User: Fold these one by one.
Assistant:
Number 1:
Amino acid sequence: MDGIEKIALKAVKKSSLPVAREAIRQLSQAKPKKVIGFWNNRDKGIRPELWLDLYTALKESESSELQKLGTEFVQSHPTGIHSLSLHGGNPVAGELVFNNQGACLQCHKVNGEGGLQGPELSLVGDRLNNEKLLESLLYPSAEITPGYGLSSIALTSGSTLAGRLAAEEGDEVLLITPDGKNHQLSRSEIQSISPPVSAMPPMGLTLPPEELRDLIAYLGSRTKAKKPGNKKSSEHGKK
Ligand code: HEC
């Protein structure tokens, strides 16, 4: 092991995330082949928070050997590089993604601001862990939040209504059509209800993986416990 590798290895193992990330970036330029060892042994002592950075170093390398490793990883993993976004994001940067690039506010409310089409996300970190958050962003229809699925309802009268299946209680079904109208229907008027699908586009597929990582960290930080006084989420506390 020579000097630069030793320093980089130490930084990757022990330094703060920004320093460790910079070490990975520099090593990948100075000694690209050393990144191969880090990548291949990542589950033996390299924090999962850094795996996306190692992957990015492989993909952005000029060496075809490194690029090939990156491609092989994507092909052999069902959630591809997205699984590398589960850990190590920055919630403050993630809030910007939420408000800007992600256009999430168009459909979701946080602290009283935003759209109505999707569920309120102020405390989504209490409901969903990082794996579930990732799933919500990649495969929105995998699990529909109750009250927020899109369905079409065939009525015994012969007509059809489509919209958000907001509530189903006993004999009553509440459907909200895209024009904002509430339709309170009783079961006797209904012939069939189609299985609900999500109105949410798979937003996670269009964001760069670093932004997805920050976004997941932000959503995960939206919890009751972290609201007051927590340094990283202090900016979220506006009401
Ligand atoms: C076009 C509207 C729309 C946009 C844009 C949108 N969503 Fe959604 N989202 C929904 C709807 C509707 C649901 C509920 C149905 C479901 O479970 O997929 C939902 C569900 C979710 C859930 C699961 C919530 C829970 O409590 O189960 C999360 C998390 C989420 N969205 C995050 C996001 C983020 C982050 C963005 C921006 C990158 C985003 N959404 C953009 C409509 C949208």
Note: The radius of gyration is 23 Å.
Number 2:
Amino acid sequence: MARAPLMLACLLAAAAPASGTEPTIPGVENPARARIDYMLKCQGCHQPDGTGNAVNTPPLKNEVARFLSVEGGRAFLVQVPGVASVDLGDERLAEVLNWTLHRFDSAHLPKGFRPYTAAEVARLRRTPLRLDRVERRNQLVSRFPE
Ligand code: HEC
């Protein structure tokens, strides 16, 4: 337990803006902070490399941005419980989502992709998916372009 404050200090230091080592990502003001938010809030299920696991977590890697090409997919990415209910404010959530899309699946980002904004995320997360998410996801995936 004695290590917790030190670890926190390291994380905060790593999240300092303008470190110069993080790539610039549209819609992500502080990429280092977004990376740490992903580490703390998302990778426990999705894994550090975004590959998820075959039992219960779909891969983000080479997949996640494909949802943006089908109607309803943009909202879905915010409304899944792991995203909508995370204890991050709207701005931080928009940033970690934009970071996730670029980090794991930039190849499938549609042309002219507009980054999520805090206002959009705030609106969408008010109506999270519950049990209906599995069927909704299947519907969207079945419409992915080849
Ligand atoms: C408790 C495990 C868990 C955590 C934590 C979690 N997710 Fe997920 N995530 C899932 C599962 C499972 C799905 C599939 C949809 C569903 O059943 O909720 C999913 C779906 C998604 C999707 C939609 C893409 C798809 O293939 O369904 C995105 C985007 C996503 N997660 C991003 C995140 C981000 C960003 C975080 C951190 C803020 C996060 N997730 C935290 C388990 C998790």
Note: The mean pLDDT is 92.
